[in-house]
Automatic annotation (TrEMBL):
It comes from the Archaea. Residues 87-111 are annotated as: Disordered. This is Uncharacterized protein. Residues 87-96 have a biased composition (Basic and acidic residues). Residues 97-111 have a biased composition (Basic residues).
Length: 111
């Protein structure tokens, strides 16, 4: 069962209220936050000043994602004290802008 919660994402001086899907089964060596391109734009993270394209294995096969390291200014609100603090302790600072469930190469993104 999917668990969705209301969150406020903050990067620099910008903040976006949205919903988040928690515990998707995705695992990585460091915490990651995946956001749609429109949210990344609203947070001032898109288009990125520097980024790299990485390959990721998903249930639907291998996809290419834009990987942006944007610092440690992301704040979680609405995730609950335990989860938000856990993410902060682990140094979550990466975002993967993508468009919904359709992951596509940056050259195919409409900016």
């Amino acid at each position: 069962m999917a668990l969705r919660v209301r969150v406020r994402l903050r990067a620099g001086g910008r903040e976006v209220a949205t919903s988040a899907l928690v515990n998707t089964g995705f695992e990585s060596s460091a915490p990651d936050v995946a956001v749609p391109v429109e949210v990344a734009k609203a947070l001032g993270l898109w288009p990125p000043k520097s980024a790299r394209v990485v390959s990721a294995d998903t249930g639907g096969g291998e996809v290419e994602l834009v990987y942006i390291e944007a610092g440690r200014s992301l704040r979680w609100r609405g995730l609950g004290e335990h989860l938000g603090e856990s993410l902060h302790r682990r140094g979550a600072d990466q975002r993967l802008p993508r468009r919904g469930a359709r992951h596509c190469h940056p050259s195919r993104l409409s900016l």
